[in-house]
Amino acid sequence: MKKYLILTGAGISAESGIRTFRDSGGLWEDHDVEQVASPAGFQQDPKLVWQFYKDRYAQSLSVEPNIAHHALRKMEDELQDNFHLITQNVDGLHSRAGSERVIEMHGSLSTAFCCGCRANYRMEELDLSIAIPLCKKCGKSLRPDIVWFGEIPYYLYEIEQHLKECDVFMVIGTSGSVYPAAGFVMTAKLFGAHTIAVNLDRPDNLGFIDEMHQGKSTELLPPLVEKILGRL
Fold first, then answer.
1. CA 42 – CA 39 distance, rounded (Å)
2. How many CA atoms lie within 13 A of 46 on its CB side?
3. 188-203 pLDDT, tens per residue?
4. pLDDT for 200-211, tens place per residue?
5. Are 142 and 158 part of one and the same domain?
6. Cα 180–chain centre separation
7. Is residue 173 a contact partner of residue 197, using CB atoms and an 8 Å limit?
């Protein structure tokens, strides 16, 4: 059985109602992204950054996984260990749809960690009514468990192994402009994978895509998954 590796980006979550930086011109309530998504921004104004992620966390809980998320869960159910999903999204919608083999390379809105002792917390454990949540173990401030600009994404070694081993690499809802994720399709193709893209717009790395499906993932992905599973 072929090994399938999926990469998802903001486009699939946008169809559930999650706002993206791209939609708002890289701004959030007149704040530059660097102010709320960088280590320097957090150091300068941790209250602002925490308010931003509290709002994003609340928004993620107010929406539901869409039929594209559920199509990928169905694909995983059929393929089992021959299926892995990398997501650039931090909203947890893939897990809420039932997917288990999910690699959250940019972290998760549902977790935080201590800036001092590095203890990990679930957001649901925290008192989010205070401006800057504090560590229960050492008393230092917590920060959202999000990979910010200038930081190294999580699980890159594991991702590289999957890219080398997959037979089919499918990219869904991503512009192909943000690295290192934009380079994954090149690596997969270099190692012989068939590459597929499902996206509203033509991605920047289209030259490395063997099969392009342009349109909404909620419309195109379910029948594409059914077609793939029908070949098994």
1. 5
2. 12
3. 999 999 999 999 999 8
4. 999 888 899 999
5. no
6. 13
7. no
Say yes or no: 157 and 138 in one domain.
no
161 and 228 share a domain?
yes
Check whether residue 13 and residue 23 sit in a common domain.
Answer: no
pTM of the model: 0.93
Q: Give the Cα separation of 191 and 169 in Å (integer).
A: 11
Domain that holds residue 121: 19-62+110-146
Catalytic residues: 106
The mean pLDDT of the chain is 93
Token duo for residue 164: 């080398």
Task: Please state the rounded mean pLDDT for residues 114-126.
Answer: 97
